[in-house]
Design a protein that fits this description.
The structure is a single chain. This protein has 275 residues and is mainly α. Helix 1 crosses helix 4. The chain is built from twelve helices and no strands.
């Protein structure tokens, strides 16, 4: 296979695995198959936690998980091989190394390593993601670009979100202190200290309202009503910030997709042999 054919195969595989970089929107047949494979893998892991099934069909679950791991490993290698046509990484071994050091590719690799450790008889490594459930975010993320959008949205609004967090902690401290001063003498078990009162403040400010702890005095109930009203705004504030950030991040993704499509088109035109 000559260099031109390899480039053509890489481009085809890249388009099949990364439909966001193609001239049209939508998922390819390979990506639909990968999504179904991830769903089956997660479903298998969920069913295995049922003792009556996990014990009776342990070998079946073992071979299913082995098959899923092999298929995900093939997908990872295919993405690495096809990454050379992606302008983000570039050709050659340096491009493959840049792909392998990308966050989603690292998560994929950690998920595969956890399966290898399990086969070796050790406890599987858990990085806190869904790697232990049979699929990593990296396998879903490249298909949708969703994790990239979430990361961009949070990073672009990190200052506003930090202010919201500081404001929430300040309200938590103030409302807990006020209820402690008002209710401590009547309900020492629930409001006998500021940390104890914080449980009520958290449940009220987050609008959860368990109802297991509540003020009994008139002034305490007035404070509780004000805290509940403030909690509605407290929840709405980061929600609005993130909604605007997601909208901006999605628009940036569309712009980047258009730029990548133009770059791929130029790359194909340069790779086309002269007539």
């Amino acid at each position: 296979m000559d260099n031109e054919q390899r480039t053509a195969w890489r481009h085809w595989l890249h388009v099949q695995l990364e439909p966001a970089h193609e001239e049209h929107d939508g998922l390819t047949a390979i990506n639909i198959g990968l999504i179904l494979l991830i769903i089956l893998s997660v479903s298998t892991t969920v069913l295995e936690t049922e003792l009556t099934l996990g014990g009776q069909y342990s070998r079946l679950f073992y071979w299913l998980e082995t098959g899923f791991a092999i298929l995900f490993a093939i997908e990872y290698l295919a993405r690495a091989w096809a990454s050379g046509v992606d302008p983000r990484y570039g050709p050659g071994w340096r491009g493959k190394l840049r792909f392998m050091l990308s966050p989603l590719a690292i998560i994929d690799l950690l998920a595969l390593l956890s399966v290898l450790l399990m086969w070796a008889g050790s406890e599987p490594f858990c990085c806190g993601c869904c790697a232990c459930s049979g699929a990593s975010p990296g396998q879903v993320g490249p298909a949708f670009g969703g994790l990239v959008v979430v990361d961009d949205a949070i990073h672009s609004r990190r200052f506003e979100l930090t202010i919201s967090l500081v404001f929430a902690m300040f309200l938590l401290l103030v409302t807990s202190t006020l209820l402690y001063l008002v209710e401590a003498g009547i309900q020492p078990e629930n409001f006998g200290s500021i940390p104890r009162a914080m449980w009520w403040s958290i449940a009220t400010l987050t609008t959860v309202g368990y109802g297991d702890v509540y003020p009994l005095t008139a002034f305490g109930r007035i404070l509780a009503g004000g805290t509940a009203i403030i909690g509605i705004g407290l929840i709405a504030m980061p929600t609005g910030i993130l909604a605007a950030a997601f909208s901006d991040a999605l628009q940036q993704q569309r712009d980047l997709r258009a730029i990548r499509q133009q770059a791929e088109m130029k790359h194909r035109l340069r790779a086309r042999p002269p007539r």
